[in-house]
Design brief:
By secondary structure, this protein is α/β, with parallel strands linked by helices. The chain contains 8 helices and 14 strands. It is 29% helix and 24% strand. The strands form 3 sheets. Strands 4, 5, 8, 9, 10, 11, 12, 13 and 14 form a 9-stranded mixed sheet that branches. Strand 1 and strand 2 form a beta hairpin. The longest helix has 23 residues. Bound molecules: adenosine-5'-diphosphate.
Length: 326
């Protein structure tokens, strides 16, 4: 199945049509509002797919609601804050969250020369199906349609030069993950899990799926690990969901553990406001947890990229003493 981007008329906005193998129109997605004044052509080849030097890191979860998209967004922003050129692709086509989490609400999707222009927000380039369809309409995709939608977002976006592309996958084990593995050269996957036993079981299935697809699992993140009531003196830590459950699961599966992110009112309110940069306010416990997580992912992704031949170790000679670094 192929996809075609076209402008339906001055006020009708952007229309994305998914064309089946027999040339029939199988799905039409429509963005609200006008889409700018640039000419929109047919499907262009995947020239912009950042497969060259970019590390592609998928973020997956066994089930919805565990904070997968929140972690994906904060990973992207955290890596960008370290000076890397970062893109984020909202591949959660059934429930795209990036418009809210990144505050894209009032912004219009631009298309130039038949290619989607990513939104530049919080230091990252972002693209989401959520800006191509009406917010309150359910998104029902058959397998081939999900495949087509993902490929279009990945391949028809003008990513430019990227160091890292974060891909926010739909929850569970499904068509999009399969397409992802076939479309982009992945560096690895991060699995997000809450501590409870049921979440662990689903996350373990997601990790197994990545392994079956030949995608290295960079590690497991435990989200909503614990809650700190910092209005008490001294602050009291509540273990609501069974802190350490995801770490135990990671160790059972012999997967690296990447870190814990606590339940945080600030994280939730900044997410609702579309302001992830505020999560990194200096000196806060939340910023500390996120920085540690970003550092762990960065380290695992760097060594995976070297193993995959996506980057090479560099040798740095400093004055005084010679040292080598990877
Ligand atoms: P998923 O992508 O797994 O469906 P989301 O990232 O959309 O989950 O998160 C679901 C909700 O939980 C959002 O409202 C988000 O702000 C909130 N959330 C996620 N992680 C945390 C956390 N550590 N503390 C507080 N709220 C969180």
């Amino acid at each position: 199945m192929a996809g075609v981007l076209r402008q339906a008329g001055p006020l009708a906005g952007l229309v994305v049509e998914f064309i089946g193998a027999g040339g029939e129109r199988v799905h039409t997605a429509r963005a609200g509002g006008e889409v700018g004044h640039t000419p929109i052509g047919g499907l262009t080849p995947a020239a912009g797919t950042p497969t060259g030097s970019a590390r592609v890191i998928a973020v997956g979860a066994g089930k919805g609601g565990v904070g997968k998209s929140t972690i994906a967004v904060n990973l992207a922003v955290g890596l960008a804050r370290r000076g890397r050129a970062v893109g984020i692709l909202d591949a959660d086509i059934y429930g795209p969250s990036l418009p809210t989490l990144l505050g894209l609400g009032a912004m219009e999707q631009r298309v130039v020369g038949g290619r989607l222009q990513p939104f530049l927000v919080h230091g990252v380039k972002a693209i989401t199906i959520g800006k191509l369809v009406e917010a309150d309409k359910p998104l029902i995709w058959r397998g081939p349609m999900a495949h087509g939608a993902f490929k279009q977002l990945a391949e028809q976006t003008d990513w430019g030069e990227l160091d890292d592309l974060i891909v926010d996958l739909p929850p569970g084990t499904g068509d999009v993950s399969l397409t992802l593995a076939q479309t982009l050269r992945l560096t690895g996957a991060v699995v997000v899990c809450t501590p409870q036993r049921v979440a662990q079981d689903d996350a373990a299935r997601a990790a197994k799926m990545f392994e079956q697809l030949g995608i290295e699992v960079l590690g497991v993140v435990e989200n909503m690990s614990y809650f700190v009531a910092d209005d008490l003196t001294p602050p009291r830590v509540y273990d609501l969901f069974g802190r350490g459950g995801a770490a135990a699961m990671a160790s059972r599966l012999r997967l690296p553990f990447l870190g814990e992110v606590p339940i945080s009112v600030a994280l939730r309110t900044n997410s609702d406001k579309g302001d992830p940069s505020a999560n990194f306010a200096a000196g806060t416990a939340l910023a500390g947890a996120l920085e540690a997580l970003v550092g762990a992912v960065e380290e695992r992704a760097a060594s995976a990229a070297v193993r995959l031949g996506q980057s090479r170790p560099t040798l740095t000679v400093r004055s005084g003493a010679a040292r080598s670094g990877a």
